[in-house]
Sequence to fold (630 residues):
Amino acid sequence: MSDHQDKAPQQTHVAWDESGSACVCAISGPLLLPRVADVWRALGTHAFGARADIRVDCAGITELDSAGVAALVTFVRTQKARGHTVTLDGLRPKHSAFIGMLGGEEALVNAVPARPPHRDTAGPVLLTWWGDFRDMVVFMGRTAAGVVSVLRRPSAECWKEVAHCLQLSGPGAVPVVCTITFLVGFVVAFQAATQLERFNAQIMVAQLVGFALFRELAPIMTSVIMAGRTGSAFAAEIGTMKVSEELDAMEVMLLNPYRYLVAPKILASLVAFPCLTMLADLAGLLGGVFVGAQFLNIPAYVFLKESFQNMTIGDLGEGLYKSVIFACLVAGIGCLRGMQVRLGADSVGRAATSAAVSGIFLTIIADALITMSGYML
Amino acid sequence: MSANGDIPAIDVRSLTAGYEGHTVLEDISFTVRRGEVFVILGGSGCGKSTLLRHLVGLAPPISGTILINGRDLTAASDSEREGILSGMGVLFQSGALFGSLSLADNIRFPLTEHAVLPAPVLETLAGMKLRLVGLEDCALHMPGELSGGQKKRGGLARALALEPEILFFDEPSAGLDPLTSATLDQTIVNLNRSLGLTIVVVTHELPSIFTIAHRVIMLDPQTKGIIAEGDPRELRDHSTNDEVRRFLNRDGA
Fold:
């Protein structure tokens, strides 16, 4: 349009002449994007008084781009709205042709509102919940069918996908799961010791750490970590595939995405969660042993003997049973959120976030229900 | 309106295009004159899109130089590169509108980041850019709610936001029906005539080429070079190269 970047800066002036009957505003120099802000300030801060006629003398404008046109048009519009009459005078032919091409006259009435009206207000929350619930029921049914179909008619493709998901969700999580549960065991041992000290029952620390870890903390911590790590990854993966129409492509080729995408992720999680939970048990116990040996004068073998003597295989079993449930919930909600993605890249991000949050939430709720029912029965 | 009319808008000198370990074009040179509509054409996989990515500075070429308005894009420092790129606008194949912003916000985004504009002027400007592509009624729509053709026009409005001198189009007709595609061609012609923009189009749509192009170059994957250059109508009827004539006459035989 114009080479304003290459040229030596040329000043843009706004001069006022209020001697006549009309207020004349003469703009001279280039009226281009970098200058518009200054010109606008000069125009906007001028006090017009009661004068009703404003004449903008544009003869001095040497160059004009669409930002300049926007400034002129906006000025005319705002002053007209205040009851002044405004005319643009002396435009060079090519400039007025340019304004015409940009639809300057029509643009006078058609500016874009600054803020879009608020979308999706709090009103239909219940509807959203109902829709979410329905999605979930449909999803669970299809997923169950998908898992059954994989188990009944196993194919190399499915197992390849299971192996792939397992590789992504399993070994990579070992360091973070072990570190965190080690520290949890460590902290629990300390807290227990300060309380048990009052009853001179510090040896019970071993038993307490063992119970707390095996039955509750190891499966929960593992699941929480996996919700953030794997659940959101599942959501992002499936969501991205949905956005790029890969899921539609599968469907028209009669490849059931629940069989080839969702079921393998659930199956892989069903293997990964219990394995990681057992590693978490060990790591947490080590944390307890470390505290016992270093700070409580309980030698490692005594600590371990105390722990295991009072626990049955059932305690380990309860933890693993929980971890299997958590696996279904976390992987399931991850895939569901991915499937719920509709349009655009930002909905993939929301799906990933929601998968992590929902995964953690469901883990805690399920844990409370399982523990409570175990106590009641 | 240009002060340096004798310098070509784009001057490509012995460019080898491609990515690491894989060249698609070898030692090609061409110039794009100021104010012309220049079409890069060729069959699928001939390196058109790769060449475009080099021209707009998205990927460095393997060797050779690209001069934009006489300034070297390939050897530019970061700040020089910024200066060169600010004079260019690109319309990507699917529009590349930001999915989380409304159409109007997509246009405001580069403007607010790169220029200081008072809010009311910004609104008018966004409205004008949308009018230019015929989307003034969709200003508040999200990109996900637009059709393919609308997304492209929206992307064009955004590409025009910063007053570019050179506009690049990557396959503007791809995925559009003939009518929409013809409208877009007309928009290209209008932009070229009325704003004097230099326009570079990558395409293989014959009707588009004959409507918009002043000059074309045709790329060939076998020789990895330019096999024809000139006015498309001229080449269609009188090219000495058999393949060029067949391409432009849509002759599959």
Remarks:
- The beta strands of chain B are 10-19, 22-32, 37-41, 63-68, 71-72, 88-91, 166-170, 198-202, 215-220, 225-230.
- The mean pLDDT of chain B is 84.
- Chain B touches chain A through 48 residues (CB under 8 Å).
